[in-house]
Design a protein that fits this description.
The protein contains 10 helices and no strands. It has helices at 2-12, 16-36, 42-74, 77-84, 86-115, 118-140, 150-181, 191-212, 219-247, 252-279. With 287 residues, the chain is mostly helical. The chain has 2 domains: 2-75; 79-279, no CATH class.
């Protein structure tokens, strides 16, 4: 039985050389089918099945290679530190996020200068303040778990809550003005796709942090998660106004959607900030 299974595995998950040949052949067959307009023929069904087999084999080959490469990388001391110490990993992640947010803030400010957009400039300044908040967290983030000091972390956690309140009030002012004027962020050309990529990056990283550090009791880790979640919500609100300005129609629907999203984001950020300020007093120390 084991020999049968090994034979099946060889057919299902061939080596790289055979996988590349399968992929090339399936791609050529698919191109020929679509070029000749044979999508509804029995030959096309056979090509689809073969292409699915090639895709499965290619995915398995990539996974196998990725596992081997990850095991080799895990032997590197720096990578081992990254995998084993959540504090150091989060601090590096904060630095990377700071660099991304700073580039996005500069992108906003340059767009405001080029296209004389007050809203671009206002959001650019908003993201600059978010970068300053990340710098504050980086300064208070312990390098390793041994360096963590709970009272200092709790103060940083509470201060982050107060700073989020200030940023939330600024965001509320920007949102009210956008709804009042009935305008949005109308990106020229393909810039809207850069904004969409940034928004989905922020949302993805916020979800990853929420799952990865859901049991972490360090307050600075929790503050970093809150800031990342806030950044994701604000970027989604900004993306919504841009998409309504580009693809939507002027009218009550656009104003109602912008107002509803702005209210939801501002309320959620305010609730998060209040929770941080209150819970910092009774959070149990990390063990």
């Amino acid at each position: 039985m084991r020999q049968v299974w090994e034979s099946i595995k060889k057919w299902l998950f061939p080596q790289w050389r055979c996988t590349l040949l399968l992929t090339a052949f399936s791609a050529a067959a698919l191109a020929l089918v679509f070029r000749c307009g044979r999508q509804d023929t029995p030959i096309a069904c056979m090509v689809y099945v073969f292409s699915f087999y090639a895709l499965t084999a290619g995915t398995a080959a990539v996974i196998r290679t990725g596992r081997k490469a990850w095991r080799q990388l895990g032997a590197i001391p720096l990578v081992a530190l990254w995998r084993g110490d959540a504090h150091w990993r989060v601090k590096v992640g904060l630095v990377i996020s700071l660099a991304v947010d700073l580039c996005y803030a500069i992108f906003r400010v340059i767009s405001a200068a080029l296209y004389a957009s007050f809203w671009e400039g206002a959001l650019g300044v908003y993201y600059i303040f978010l970068c300053a908040l990340r710098i504050f967290l980086i300064r208070h983030m312990p390098v390793t778990k041994a360096d963590a000091h709970y009272p200092d972390g709790a103060r940083a956690y509470r201060t982050t809550g107060w700073l989020l309140v200030g940023l939330d009030l600024a965001l509320a002012g920007i949102a009210v003005q956008i709804v009042w004027d009935g305008r949005g962020h109308d990106y020229p050309g393909t810039m809207i796709y850069a904004a969409a990529a940034y928004s989905f990056y922020c949302l993805t990283m916020a979800v990853i942090d929420a799952v990865r550090y859901r049991e972490a009791r360090n307050p600075v880790l929790s503050a970093a998660k809150a800031v990342r979640l806030t950044t994701a919500m604000v970027s989604l609100f900004s993306l919504e106004t841009a998409m309504l300005a580009r693809f939507g129609e002027d009218g009550p629907f656009r104003s109602y959607m912008t107002a509803a999203t702005a209210a939801a984001v501002c309320i959620l950020v305010l609730m998060l900030a209040i929770y941080m300020m209150i819970s910092a007093r009774w959070r149990p120390a990390e063990r």
